[in-house]
Amino acid sequence: MDWITIISTTLKSAVGVETVLYGLAAIGINIHFGYTGLLNFGQAAFMGVAGYGLAVTVAVMNLPFWLGILVGLGAAVLLAVLLGIPTLQLRADYLAIVTIAAAEIVRLIFRSVAFKDVFGGSDGQRGFSDGFYALNPFPEGDYGFNLGPVPIFFNHRLLWVLLVGWLLIAVCCGIVYLLMKSPWGRVLKAIREDEDAVRSLGKNVFSYKMQSLVLGGVIGCLGGFVYGLAFASVQPDIFGTETTFYCYTIVILGGAARVLGPVIGSMIFWVLLVLVYGVLSEAVAAGYIPFMTSIQVGPVRYILVGLGLILLLVFRPQGIFGDKREIAIDAR
Amino acid sequence: MRRAVIAFTAFLGGLVFLLAGPAHAGPAECQGLKGTLKLQGQPVNGVKIAVTTEGGQPVKEVATNAQGAWDVQVDKPGKYKVTLDVSSLPQNAEVRGGTNVRTLTVYEGNCSAVLFALQPKGAPGQQQNASAEESPFWTQFAQLTFEGINLGLIIALAALGLSLVYGTTGLTNFAHGELVTLGAILAYAFNVGMGLHLIPAAVIAVIVAAALGYAQDRFFWGQLRRRGTGTIAMMIISIGVALFLRYVFLLFFGGQNEAFAQYTAQPGVQIGPISAAPKNFVAMAVELVVLIVVGVALLRTRTGKAARAVADNPALAASSGINVDRVIRIIWTLGGGVAALAGVMLGLSQNLKYTMGQDILLLIFAGVTLGGLGTAFGALVGSIVVGLFIQVSTLWVPPELKSVGALAVLIIVLLVRPQGILGRRERIG
Amino acid sequence: MRAETTTSERKAAALAAFKDLAHDPGVPKPDPILVVDDVVRRFGGLTAVDVKHVEIQRGSITALIGPNGAGKTTFFNQLTGFDTADAGSWTFNGRRMNGVPAHKVARAGMVRTFQLTKALSRLTVMENMRLGAQQQKGENFWRALVPSFWRGQEDAITERAEDLLTRFKLAAKRDDFAGSLSGGQRKLLEMARALMVEPELVMLDEPMAGVNPALTQSLLGHVKDLREQGMTVLFVEHDMDMVRDISDWVVVMAQGSVIAEGPPDTIMSDERVIDAYLGAHHDAPLSESELTEQLQEAEAALEAEIEEETQK
Fold first, then answer.
1. Within an 8 Å CB–CB cutoff, is residue A179 touching chain C?
2. Are residues C19 and C90 in the same domain?
3. pTM for the whole structure
4. Looking at beta carbons, which residues of chain B come within 8 Å of A306?
């Protein structure tokens, strides 16, 4: 078994592209679900409209890169408003169903034959990231260091994506920290507890929920940009409901309503997935696990995601960094 | 609680065991390559496929059958090259991405699926006009209505359990789609894996699924309820269960499409404007009978009345001497069994796939909410409306967007009349 | 000593205002703060509220009583914008309030509490209090990002909250999560939080429900206190002892309508009221002891409900 490769990919995944993009999406979910109590099951759609907004603007309409970013951000805000106006007055479980349905609609439209000219059908779009890599300050080459015998290197393109991605995460966490310390954040948390009480104290609950939905959606959409730029393509099925569910797993893993919860959750989530995958597929290839084939390794890690989500909510709903007291009172 | 989790793990382990046996028995007879060619959901017949070794030695040449399926068995595992003869494709079709050659590895005792995605040639609009001209509007309308009712009845079967569970426990069960898949895969395991005829296989699958439904509540959901787990937390737990089960299915069933051993290639019969395979009529009859029996049971039997009382007001029902836990357990058993039946029927009218339940989950939700969350009869009406809407809307909407319409209706219903068609308004405060 | 005098003056003023009024439903008051006309709310075929005309006297404590299902809470919900009335209009301080959303009703100075207390469990007692303050600069998204904009105001709010907490004997609980308080303490917190809004009219929905007897007296004192500070109080209550003790005027509802009004000491002997209670319940309490017994049962049930609510 090639332990060096396994350790190397595992360590790299702690700061890798998936960690960044899911971390960003999870920060958004944390604002919705952790702080405001909004069950937005359509986060994948926010990532999708951002990625596609960028892709279509640049690849189809041949407009500059920064305009694509603006279009993507605008699309996320628009989606939040369109989704929010009718649904924010619904009960929590209805909101969940409506947002999941809306996200599926968005995905089905992206992959439809009817709009193939614009969105590229199930193949998606590619060839829109040149503007981003043109800004890359790192000259071509591999960057990194050897940790003992374990090489940890990223190429210049990946390094540029990761640098931007982690800067975005830092800025988003900073914003969340400032907001949740403020009276604005207090209103959100109060809405999570009981919106009628907040209404009776003269706060416009709808407006705050909308602000929360837009903010979380915009932060989630940054994850969509990171995906599109890192892989230089977007495909509709990347933005399916499972993506949203992984974000929820990440938020709960790290601890809901904690500023750094989603980021650390994302790191743990991907380190575990990559590690399990690496070890299992190496073991299968080496013949240590005779009853499994290499194709079966893929599903196993998602079985673990499901199992992990169940066990977390049953035994440690506050996540790794959550405050036990806070949960113990009434949420359980 | 620890006991509950151990029990649940045991339950899942048992499930894995159940699936593992036949699923391994199945592919053992299969070592080679196979695939299915479809153009916009319709099977493509008579396309020539040639399989050669990596070095170019010809192995076999086959043509797709009426279901668009083909397969080639090979003696030795290893790398093989698959070439699709483009000239044998229908004139309006082409391979997506352009390349008609795939190179794949065949593992020992395993069938690898070869993917050729077909798409209509040229602008999609032209092709649709051509098909629209073939049959007059009303014939098509009648056909689609029939198919819509067929789909609606399947959704209704699945929705029944979801709705009753929601009504009695407040759980929005995102894992309900997986119960549908479970039924189909169990039936497949008994049918193809153990060689039983489909009808006894389906009966056994439904019974096993009902037992698993019972076990799920007895050892898992019931325990969580006793702990006082909130409905939102339970909802997210159900997502975990859904992910878990879905990938367990993938692990043992594989990612390919499968069909039952019987009734797959039935010649269609023409009744008036409607053409369908006889199995569809039988399936619909079975679905109707089951729905009517369950409906009558809800109205007439003691347990049925108790179930409705619990759905109406659990606290009141409990205080008037109804054993709420027992009622909920019966509902889980019934819901599991009926969902499994829905899975078998779905597998019969389409194909079996590990995501088949997930794919119709939102349609089930649409049916349930349309009828009013928690009302059993509402779910039936709502589901049939959803099924009809999906199929009939393809008269005007491209088929791949047909679910979009249904989901849009779901959203609109929740906005305008959250209590559904047959639901009552809740009193606020 | 001085406070004593003002106390009696306020009470005397309120009583004087009611002195010569007829005991009819909808009787006009000398200085009404709230005037309600023709409010109707239907649920399906059931008419839950159908109030022709009612006025609430400024600076008084008015009790709203009636048998179960009389529509008192629903009426509260209409007035405070938590539910939409099918018809009707009402004015608060001369301002039309029908169709005004709940948060604007509160901002106008009409603040309510709930029958089942809505303490914000996973916020601390102090955060609960701070939330009540109005026109906070830091509640704007952009200004929230820059603490220096709102820090000063926050300190002032905290000071006011601390005063109120001391008055309501919750100062020791200041940094505890509200979810850890007892039922009675939550009632106190909810009332204190409502005062942070600085309302003119306080609407209390069953302030005594689920409160243990030891706290009842202190709660009563706080309600009387509200009037002494110049506020108007409208409250729903079952406990006739309490109604008699603190209210200046009583409005009786039955089957959605106001059937009688009058001073607390004579209202229970009003024929219409007796009819309403008897008509609504065959086992309606006739004697004082039966009444308390029944109420204790109801309270126990409510307490269980609250217990359930908090465990969710």
1. yes
2. yes
3. 0.80
4. 240-247
Closest CA to B35 of B51, B20, B21: B51
* CATH number assigned to the domain comprising residue A254: 1.10.3470
Residue C185 lies in a domain: no
Q: Are A164 and C129 in contact (CB under 8 A)?
A: no
Of B124, B235, B244, the CB nearest to A306: B244
> Residues of chain A with pLDDT > 90: what percent?
57
Residues C45 and C147 in one domain: no
* A293 φ, ψ (degrees, to nearest 5): -105, 165
CATH number of residue C8's parent domain: 3.40.50.300
One domain for residues C210 and C102 = yes
pLDDT tens digits, residue range B41-77? 667 777 778 887 776 677 777 778 777 788 887 777 7
ipTM, 2 decimals? 0.87
| Interchain pair C122, A202: CB under 8 A | no
Instruction: Sheet containing C87-92: give its strands across.
Output: C46-57, C32-43, C87-92, C95-96
C121: nearest CB among A186, A196, A329: A329
More confident residue, B375 or B234: B234
Which structural domain range is residue C147 located in?
122-180
Mean pLDDT confidence for A118-124: 86
Looking at the fold, whether C77 and C144 belong to one and the same domain comes out as no
Angle between helices B324-349 and B356-371 (to 10 degrees): 120
> Is pLDDT of B300 > 90?
no
Domains belonging to chain B, first-starting first, are 32-126 (2.60.40.10), 137-416 (1.10.3470)
Euclidean distance between CA atoms C302 and C300, whole angstroms: 5
- Rounded to whole angstroms, how far apart are CA atoms B274 and B287? 19
**Count of domains forming chain C:** 2
Task: Choose among B183, B247, B216, B196: nearest CA to B18.
Answer: B183
Retrieve residue C94's tokens: 């001369």
CA C308 to chain centre: 23
User: Per residue in C282-306, pLDDT tens?
Assistant: 444 455 666 666 666 666 666 665 5
The residue behind tokens 């202190």 is: C218
**Number of folded domains in chain A?**
1
